[in-house]
Specification:
The protein is of the alpha/beta class. It has helices at about 15-25, 45-55, 75-80, 80-95, 110-120, 175-185; strands at about 30-35, 40-45, 60, 70, 100-105, 125, 135-145, 150-155, 165-170, 190-200. A 6-stranded mixed sheet has the order 2-1-10-9-5-6, with helices on both faces. The chain has a two-stranded antiparallel ribbon with strand order 3-4. The protein starts with 16 loop residues before the first helix and ends with a strand. Bound molecules: adenosine monophosphate.
């Protein structure tokens, strides 16, 4: 079995099985897509491109705390070709999906979601940590190893019936994403077409 390359910040009893919970949360059977899946060895782009992208993502051991292997995407972002390839690959997947809004998860999710929104000609919506959004918000609270955290979205983020995707940089335990999916599906009449990631960590 391939050794685990990374653990989430929230490395508690929640594991990959939580990703299955995403499909339970979303009654329309949520679809998940990752450009790069670590350890399992499948890539969505041509092999050559994916190897190049994978090698430019830097592993930082023991960050932000001991035992975590942090996937540092900053070298990818500062390389014009790699960044463009990632956005082009995401665009290719969603270009015929008539996406109204691309939702980004604070903070690194904003980078990919906003560039993708521009590329698709869609709007961009932010899901943020508590207290950051200035207007009326809906909130979803989720459990961490010790304590809890929350995510927020503006109450006027979507119009009924809009087709949306949620985008983030890394899918680890899926805890954050589960909260984001719940936040959106509980409070809005939207069509969540898919959740998309640059990297999926394999546990
Ligand atoms: P999770 O809720 O465990 O899926 O983690 C979600 C968020 O934490 C993602 O938005 C990532 O940005 C970040 N994250 C978790 N683990 C890592 C990791 N090993 N390297 C980089 N980012 C991570």
């Amino acid at each position: 079995m391939t050794p685990r390359s990374s653990r989430s910040f929230y490395s508690h009893e929640v594991n990959a099985s939580q990703i299955v919970a995403l499909q339970v949360i979303n009654p329309i059977h949520l679809k998940k897509f990752s450009l790069l899946k670590y350890n399992a060895g499948y890539w969505d782009l041509e092999r050559q491109n994916m190897e190049a992208l994978k090698s430019i993502i830097r592993d930082i051991p023991d960050f932000p705390k001991k035992g975590i292997v942090f996937k540092d995407i900053t070298p990818l972002l500062s390389d014009p070709i790699s960044f463009q390839k990632v956005i082009d690959a995401l665009k290719a997947r969603y270009k015929d999906e008539k996406i109204d809004q691309v939702v980004g998860v604070e903070a690194r999710g904003f980078i990919f979601a906003s560039a993708l929104a521009y590329a698709l000609g869609s709007g961009f919506v932010m899901i943020r940590k508590p207290g950051k959004l200035p207007y009326n918000t809906y909130q979803e609270t989720y459990s961490l190893e010790y304590g809890e955290d929350s995510v927020e979205i503006h109450q006027d983020a979507f119009e009924n019936g809009q087709r949306i995707i949620i985008v983030d940089d890394v899918l680890a335990t899926g805890g954050t994403l589960a909260a984001c999916v719940s936040l959106v599906t509980k409070n809005f009449q939207v069509n969540l077409v898919e959740v998309g990631f640059l990297i999926e960590l394999d546990f």
